[in-house]
Request: fold
Amino acid sequence: MITIWKSPYFEGHLAFHNSFSLSVDFRSLHNNAEWLLTNIYGPCTDEGKLSFVDWLKNIAMPEEVDWLLVGDFNLMRSPANRNKPGGDINQMLLFNEAISALGIVELPLLGQQFTWTNKQLEPLLERLDWFFTSSSWTLTYPNTTVSTMLMETSDHVPCVVNIATNIPKGKNFRFENYWMEHEVFMDVVRHGWSIPTQQSDVAKVISAKFKNLRRVLKAWQVQLSSLKGNIENVKLVLWLIQLVEFHRDLTIEEWNFKHILEDKLLSLLRQQIIYWKQRGTIKWVKFGDEGTKFFHANATLRSRRNLITTLHDNAGIPKSSHSEKRKYSLGNI
Reply:
């Protein structure tokens, strides 16, 4: 294994290495951002794979580290990672168990489905190369993708990891489920639904009422304070009250105010979980769970999987930038 970087842009230091991996701590010389890259080369023997998976599962990586874990794991995650019947199901289960224990997020592979071939006349094709990030990385670099390249002399498909921070946001109206937790939501709905329409046909009346309701909700949404900002503000005030409580007993008014803030914080956190649950489409989450960061990463992964990185026009010319893809798509509707 070898890790190479451009010294004018990054500063790198060896963090760890063993027979399975090579980890390098990087610091950007542009903005001082720090992250960890781990290159993997998994063993080919059954015994070696068991040792590798056991080592992988027990890595104790702090959750705040921006971690990129890539390489030839020499393992598959499911029978679909192979073009012919076969594969060791037990090894797949152990590999998936290790991934789950680490809490890492798989980067979707754009392009070819398989990354290795035995180069025979009727080739065996398998997906052996994998790319994972920590949840922290997903939040810092939400538009990270992996693309396959043309295989030349190697039996592995070269892959490129593209890292960016911005995903273009659409302007379509989105109904937010957490709005229903807001104390004035039903009043807004009643107002929007009661606006008179100029239609006589029942179906057109219903359609016009929904359009009015959408317009009213969009206007109301603009007036709403930031959910994240509200949570931070309530936490700050609670922290200040705790500081006061360290030095003296709270008055009845202060004590009541503290409990009002605690109830408000619980309500806001419930809304935040609903917000990320809607984006992550994780059906099994309970409102008491504290995995907001995980849901945020999962929602970003969903957006990343839905991202169309390149369109090709009739002449085969690729369109990669957001503006090019938008212009080409609108011109062919």
